Amino acid sequence: MSTDDAINQIKSTLSTVPYFANLDIALIETIAQHMKVQQYDTGQVVFLEGEQDVALYIVHTGWLKAVKTSPDGREQVLHFIGSGEVFNAIGVFVESTNPATVIALEPTTVWVIQQTVILKLLDQHPELGRVIIQRLAERVQQLIHMVEDLSLRTIEARLARYLIEQSTEEQLLRPRWATQAEMANRLGTVPDVLNRALRSLAKDNLIRVERHQIQILDYAGLETKAGADK
After folding, report:
1. DSSP 207
2. 91, 115, 150 — which closes off a domain?
3. What number of other Cβ atoms are within 10 A of residue 143's Cβ?
4. For strand 213-216 and strand 207-209, is the pairing parallel, antiparallel, or unpaired?
5. In whole angstroms, how far apart are CA 119 and each of 32, 74, 116, 136, 219?
6. Which of 9, 40, 139, 143 has CB 3.0 to 4.6 Å from 44, enough for a Cys bridge?
7. Please, are residues 7 and 33 in contact by the beta-carbon 8 Å criterion?
8. Residue 117 to residue 28: CA distance in whole angstroms
9. The CATH number of the domain where 55 resides is what?
């Protein structure tokens, strides 16, 4: 693929990414010209928490996870990151080190723009700053909901909320990497406890667990479960 073709592909994708979708086409082209493509294999680390080399990343294809890890190796998944999503904005705009570790869950292609470049663009284009502030506020709100879930809700309620948030047309398709271990890490528990929670929701006829998907049988009942135990 030629350089021009690569830039055109990036421009096309950026126009669909919430961070950049409503920006002037000339600004999108400027951003595209400063981006570099990087590819990662399954299990490969994109960056480690605390590293100094900070950049903004946009997922072109694939899935990743952002995690915090305890000294004994236990993971808390902060976010599963899919195509079209932007990550590491907090590290870039706080002008600090990377706040979490990001790992590829499957073969993944990302576009990268260095911190110095994006900060210069912010100085030159105030409209970009307004968009980024809005998206960062949304991400902070998501993290607040996560803290609320981990602190105030049972595992059944946390699982119900997760299924609602991740479902499409009342079913949750499970990629190959979406094991019970990964789901447990996202929900702040362990696989055995998650398995019991799945069986409990299934016993209440709220969901049906199949090999590659979870079918929601009673959406209203699942919403009630998600709001319980607060």
Report:
1. E
2. 150
3. 12
4. antiparallel
5. 15, 34, 5, 15, 43
6. 40
7. yes
8. 13
9. 2.60.120.10
pLDDT of residue 176: 83
Least confident of 8-22, 128-142, 172-186, 209-223: 8-22
Pair (197, 171) in one structural domain: yes
Domain end (from 150, 173, 203): 150
What's the CA gap between 100 and 118, in Å, rounded?
20
Domain that holds residue 82: 3-150
Distances (CA, A) of 194 to 3, 8, 52: 47, 44, 36
| Ranges assigned E (strand) in 7-164 | 36-40, 45-47, 55-61, 64-69, 75-81, 86-87, 101-104, 108-114
| Whole-number pLDDT of residue 6 | 67
The alpha carbons of the chain give a radius of gyration, in whole angstroms, of 19
Length reported for the chain = 230
Contact 92, 36 (CB under 8 A): no
Which residue's entry shows tokens 């209203």? Answer: 220
DSSP string, 127-183: HHHHHHHHHHHHHHHHHHHHHHHHHHS-HHHHHHHHHHHH-BTTEEE--TT--HHHH
Query: What does the alpha-carbon distance between residue 55 and residue 52 come to, in Å, rounded to a whole number?
Result: 10
**Which amino acid is located at 143 in the chain?**
L
